[in-house]
Amino acid sequence: MPKSRIRKKADYTPPPASKQTASIKLTNRSWVAPVMLALFAIGLVWIVVFYVTDGTLPLKSISNWNIVVGFGFIAAGFGVSTQWK
């Protein structure tokens, strides 16, 4: 029985490099760090004030949900931090 031929695979050739480099638009994101830190601080202060005042401040009407509001500010700070470059 005849032996089958071995097919040689073509060598990989990368695509030719374009002569124009893509310009990267850098937007001014100087607002991100202050907003992020402010949200972290507001959340932390909200929770600390709630515990120090035994639940009478910042909002007595929502009682223990004040903790969720504080963590919401902190979570928003983490959300803003994704915009930081």
Describe this structure in words.
With 85 residues, the chain is mainly α. Helices cover 45% and strands 0% of the residues. It has 2 helices and no strands. The protein has helices at residues 32-52, 65-81. Helix 1 packs antiparallel against helix 2. It is elongated, with a radius of gyration of 29 Å. The mean pLDDT is 87.
Secondary-structure blueprint:
Layout: H1 32-52, H2 65-81
Helix pairs in contact: 1-2
Structural class: mainly alpha
Helix content: 40-55%
Mean pLDDT: 87
Task: Give the uncertain stretches in residue-range form.
Answer: none
Total strand segments? 0
Instruction: Report the sheet with the most strands, covering strand number, pairing sense and barrel closure.
Output: none
- Supply Rg: 29 Å
- Approximately what portion of the residues adopt beta-strand conformation? under 5%
Q: Ends: how far apart?
A: 66 Å
Q: Helix count?
A: 2
Q: What shape does the CA trace take?
A: elongated
SSE order, one letter for each helix or strand = HH
Short description:
The protein is mainly α and about 80 residues long.
Key phrases:
85 residues; mainly alpha; 45% helix
